[in-house]
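Throughout our pipeline, every protein is held as a single compact record rather than as scattered files. Nothing more is needed to write down the fold, since each code stands for a local backbone conformation. For reference, a complete record is included directly beneath this paragraph.
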Amino acid sequence: MSFVRACGQSQSSLWLALLPFAALLLLLIAPLARLALSGFTGEASWLGAASSSWSLWTPWQDDYLRWRVLWSLAQAGITCVLVFVLGLPLAWVLARFEFAGRALVLRLLMLPFVVPTLVAALGVLALWGPRGLLSGWLGVNLQDTPWLLLYGNLFFNLCLVVRAGVDALGQINARQVAAARSLGATPWRTFWRIEWPAIAPWLMSSLCLVFLYCFAGFGLALVLGGQRFATVEVEIYTLVAHELQLGQASVLALWMLGLTGGVALLYALLEKRLAAPSRVQPLARRPPQGLAQWLALLGALLVLFAICALPILAIVWRALAAGWSTWVTLLDFEVAAALWNTLRFSSIALLLATLLGVLHALAAQRSVLWRAAAFLPFVVSPVTVAFGLLLLYPDWTASLPLLLAAYAV
């Protein structure tokens, strides 16, 4: 009887996974496979694009392209270091201190995740651009420097590490900490011997995601990186959209796929080390006591405000100071059409994504493989996927069905 029930569950899981599997196969796996084939064979002239004599090792042999790849790796690595150095103490303060507005602060940490990339980039420019609010006041010019891109990376990714740290610190068993302190361990020693081993896998997995988001990011690098500090993603876009060098772009995209795939594998290995949530007695949060703790809380809130809130407030300030003549542009036909298209595409993609997501979640309850497959769209570069779709479905270029399907997946 149990065998029959198991077979029935396996068949139901198979039927539930059929539609999301077809979507992943046609819109993610097949385009990436086509891209890999194009990269290995150097064949892209069937699209009417310029032929390429590039080999697979050209990005490492050409000085210009090697700089693009190394800078892409460097800015992602620097961002990981910065968010770790800032995020760990911020997470500790938010996890250990109780204060008025703490719940609101934790909710606001989710705000950067829902801000469009280009909007965030405009916020960074409104602060630190040529006529930015802070750059003009401080008399500094960050244009054509890497700091604009790094600040934008911090805006999006600091909150991710802080949230992961807060959640991980909430899993610390208060009894273990109390036992260590009763044996004479200092707070610093208690942290390194008990708290750090428990939270390290959480932080390392979040840093893998930060590296993936920064290395494969496109919008921020396009707007804030400039010509000198553009990343590989921007270079791929330039080769495809402006130079029609699809063979060259496929080689770069293939390297991007390999590098992001390696980091994604590391993330999956770290995820396996994360302990399942268990019922433990967490450390009780206490109000700050003494000047040092109050200064730590105030400093943490100021850092979060400066990095995660100021770009959004700068956009609001610029919009309010723009004047009525600028707001009238919202009534322009082209602007109204763009807004309508955005709402229409987002709504349809939301319905499709909800259907695929529910079916995928039901199937993933019975399959570890399907749970892992859910991360595929997050670890693959959007520009790489878009280029793969262009190679695989040239007749569907600029078609609404392909656009909506790609959004949904």
